[in-house]
Amino acid sequence: MSETPHQPPITRLLGIMARLRDREHGCEWDLAQDFASIAPYTIEEAYEVADAIARGDMADLKEELGDLLLQVVFHARMAEEAGHFAFDDVAATISGKMEARHPHIFGAESGTMDEARWEDIKASERASKGVASALDGVALALPALMRAEKLQKRAARTGFDWPDPSGSEAKIAEEIEELKAATSDAAKLEEAGDLLFAAVNFVRAHGIAAEDALRAANAKFEARFRAMEQLVGPETFATLTLEAQEELWQQVKKQS
What we know:
The protein is mainly alpha-helical. It folds into 2 domains: 9-129, Helix Hairpins (Orthogonal Bundle); 144-254, Orthogonal Bundle (Helix Hairpins), CATH 1.10.287.1080. 73% of the residues lie in helices and 0% in strands.
């Protein structure tokens, strides 16, 4: 498919995907894909967008946003081929949703949008879909920490929540003891999950997103560990005693 002089980029991208999925002249790999096989790539691209943002790399962010957009186009193309919906339907749906969620901008309402009003609107959307539980619609594919926080927030809106952080703090202490007392692998797994869930609840009570906090902690640990390796060399570091490694760790901590 040749590019016309003033072809909008999104039109060009849609045309590329149509060509790749052409039954007679398309790409064998692209034709072999379905929603399930592409889904992991969609998740991966979303994480790569987040990584570019965290690194403040705008050139990389531009590229990663394009990769993520390709995933949307890919899914929409497969849906169109199956007679479900097309890319324009996707764009129209999100446009309508955003207008409905911002009546103070696009509707007759005036003023600002607070969190309570925002949640009321989303609750109405769920009700229109026949949602039976306050927890419906929390995607199973979300990272576990993020999903735990969303489940807790949904439950909290029904009043099911600790009145202050001390409740979740006590729950953490309780879960630690239960994990220590667990004997079977199944019990240890269950109690470890309960402990992590309680920890998410505790940091949520302090206004912190657990996923963001752990991502930052991972980055900090990685930077410090790499710094230790650079001080003595990766191969030498692995031969050091734990005490010597701890000394390096403390040295790096002071420098960071």
